[in-house]
Amino acid sequence: MILFDGHTHIYDCYDLEIFFAAAFKNFSTAGAKLKSESSVTFFMLLAEAGGVHYFKKLQEIARSGGGSLPTSWRVEESDEAYSLFVFHDNFPSMRLIVAAGRQLITKEKLEILALMTEQEFEDGMTLEDCVDTVAQAGGIPVCPWGAGKWMGTRGKVLADYTLNSNELFYLGDSGGRPSIWPRPSLFKGKAVASRLLSGSDPLPLAAEEGKVGQFGAFIDCDCPQERPATFLRDQLKNSQIELTPYGRQCCPLLFFKNQVALRLKK
Predict the structure, then answer these.
(1) pTM given for the model
(2) Which helix (H) or strand (E) holds 129?
(3) Residues near 125 by beta carbon (within 8 Å), at least 6 away in sequence
(4) Residues 201-231: tens digit of each pLDDT
């Protein structure tokens, strides 16, 4: 079985030891609840904004022997340019894979994730050009839910594009969406079910570093040892694959508290 958090970030305000410990705990808890009889592989799919390069920092740590990581943690390179293994001495059998990815802003001010690619992209492309560019680079283009981002003119642009898009365009649900918020109409319908990627989408607040792995999706299949991220990427590009979300939406009180904290931080 493959469990993945399809929208993760690492911010400067995060403590890496707390962050990775939370990932191990949250993924393990989710895997145990699903009671899979096969081995479970966990993926953290990064979506880094312009100027943020934590994946490259982790790559450098792996190449230098992990000297700057907290005790008992280590990062190792895989046989792919856009994925890394994270291990902890107390959990030698747990497979946590961090995959590179970028977060872009389109001309229409929509957010697009370019998942599982090490390539960088320019902001400001039209939605159509952005999706095509990410797909041509081999990545998974996703438009994630965000508070207020799917309303008004932007919402209409996204709705029109979604109705006419090909199978290489995905929508993303978010663990940050409050549980009392109505389910977006774009999530409804069979055509979207196989193209809905869920993720925790932690915010740049220190308290959010424990969210990674709490919300995501799983695929009921084994993941190979070699080129694991390429395998997952190929699975996600298969419109016949069944994606099943796991985890719960955000507590309404926490949602509003975080929104206030973000505005005070700015």
Answers:
(1) 0.92
(2) helix 127-136
(3) 104, 106, 107, 133
(4) 999 988 899 999 999 999 988 898 899 999 9
